[in-house]
Specification:
The structure is a homodimer. The first copy, chain A, contains eleven helices and eight strands. The first copy, chain A, has helices spanning 16-27, 47-61, 71-75, 79-84, 94-111, 123-135, 139-144, 168-177, 194-208, 212-225, 257-271; strands spanning 7-11, 31-38, 66-70, 116-118, 148-149, 158-160, 241-242, 249-250. In chain A, a hairpin with a 6-residue loop joins strand 7 (241-242) and strand 8.
């Protein structure tokens, strides 16, 4: 996944997976910085505030460099506020949040000169995504679900998920044994999310047939690696244009979805 | 699936799906005979005996031709007895039973001059098979799971599953409304079968997300039809040899799995 002289950027949420990943990569002596994205999810529970504290404390304790991007400051509204000002996601902020995080991670990673963006997705995460995509046979998504997505020279950074073969309970055990302080709460907006439903169903399967979750994911990777899916397998072959506003790669001509959405958020905020 | 002058052979188990299918095809004025395979599953409950009675009664009532193949008479042992004499299936007769039924159905269909073999598999059956194959990403099976499998000139009859888009509750409702007498019992050996476990899991998914089961199956068919799987899609392209004993097509040189298994069953029975 990585060469020893790669500059790695880890996307850090303050949760166990991403902090454990940062810890592992640092102990393996990779050159690895963190990126925390402040989403402004600060109603009851102060999710963003508390998770940022954990990320900052970890960086300070291990003398690591943490880049902080604050959505409210940079883009003009917090994620929950912006979600009320756009039709994207039908009231739920998750779609907007994912779009925004992907954009920021790629921008910081690509323009910061990093070789690879690492995220803390574990087996439970990946199996749930795979399960959702399989229930609807979304073959485009299936063919691009991979532990490593190679970069695209026009502007997508290489991406890697080093923990994708570890059960969530394994990353939790690692974080516990290493004494890593992380935020226990899930994002309050995740309640009722499809991904959580799929995780529960897969947990039931795993309880009845131990190993089924790993087998599901690994046999998928094997089939995918053998070229089973008859279409483009990664982002290197996508037909990409440059967004005329931000310059990031996009599959649609003109403005990318990120710029379009946030321009409309700011316009509505001013007029409203 | 069928032309009006096709000669159709319906595999009839005495259950609701296959009898409902026979009824529908007969009412639509297709030329359709039935095939009942006596498996000799006649411990407590007398499953085979009772299911044969239902099949015979239906044929008599509608003045239809029913072919009866008795495994014990033809092959020398009942399915449960044979299962104790072979290592196939590790004590469970289901693998041997499937192998045997597929062989007999193809032999009777092909040599009887039928154009197509129709089976009563419903959506619940197909979705459970699909689910099992997907959990292990068995792409060979996935690519051949289809409402219609075209024939292979060297000896595989065309196969069709006209009810594959109907929920089990729909075929049950049809059988009920038509007053079809069918056997309610499941095969006693099916208890604990993976397929039943998968059906239960999918039923839970369906209860939480109505339509999910149909969507899972239909989106699979759509993806498959679009050529997503990068391998042979049906039996017409298989590299087949002829079994040196029975002459039926097989993918392995020499004897087919059916002949090999039953020869060994008869040898053990004689010696044992």
């Amino acid at each position: 996944m990585f060469k020893m002289d790669d500059r790695i950027l880890v996307a850090v949420s303050g949760g166990k997976d991403s902090l454990a990943l940062w810890d592992v990569l640092n102990r393996l002596e990779y050159k690895v910085d963190g990126l925390y994205i402040g989403l402004g999810i600060d109603g009851e529970g102060r999710y963003s505030h508390n998770s940022q504290e954990k990320a900052e404390a970890f960086a300070a304790e291990h003398n690591l460099h943490l880049i902080i991007e604050d959505v409210t400051k940079t883009l003009g509204a917090s994620i929950p506020e912006a979600a009320t000002l756009t039709h994207r996601g039908r009231g739920k902020p998750c779609s907007l949040c994912g779009l925004t995080k992907r954009h920021i991670m790629n921008r910081v990673g690509f323009h910061g000169g990093y070789d690879v963006l690492a995220t803390g997705h574990n087996l439970d995460d990946e199996a749930a995504v795979l399960f959702g995509n399989t229930l609807n046979w979304q073959v485009g998504y299936l063919s691009r679900q991979s532990p490593v997505l190679e970069d695209n020279p026009t502007g997508f950074i290489r991406r890697a998920k080093p923990f994708c073969r570890f059960y969530e309970r394994e990353t939790a055990a690692y974080a516990l044994l290493r004494g890593i302080e992380y935020i226990y709460d899930e994002c309050p907006h995740a309640v009722g999310a499809k991904s959580i439903y799929y995780k529960e169903l897969l947990n039931q399967l795993e309880a009845d047939r131990p190993g089924a979750k790993l087998q599901f994911y690994l046999s998928f990777l094997k089939a995918r690696g053998e070229g089973v899916f008859n279409i483009e397998q990664d982002q290197s072959g996508l037909d990409l244009k440059q967004c005329e506003t931000c310059g990031q790669p996009t599959t649609i001509p003109g403005q990318c979805a990120f710029c379009r959405t946030w321009e409309s958020v700011r316009a509505r905020k001013q007029s409203g």
